[in-house]
Amino acid sequence: MKTTIRKMGNSQGVLIPKPFLTQLGLENEVEMNIEDDAIVLRRPRDSARKGWAEASKLIAKSGEDSLVLGEFGNDGDAELEW
């Protein structure tokens, strides 16, 4: 498909047809890279920590959030004055 590059404020862009977005499941964000001589748009990858906040809340709610190693100090803690 051939399309035109349009002026958008201080930038330029192209309009992506809705059927393309729907087919790829794209909504608000894309990852954009240059590969060889092409601009490539991809579905964003999931965050490395996606779901951690919800999982930690479930663990805390179940009471399984106690320390695994317990309390331990650092070398030199005995010399510290509070």
TrEMBL record:
Keyword DNA-binding recorded: yes
DNA-binding in keyword set: yes
Keyword vocabulary terms for this entry: DNA-binding
Gene Ontology molecular-function annotations: DNA binding
Domain SpoVT-AbrB residue range list: 3-46
Superkingdom as given in the UniProt entry: Bacteria
Name listed for the protein in its UniProt record: AbrB/MazE/SpoVT family DNA-binding domain-containing protein
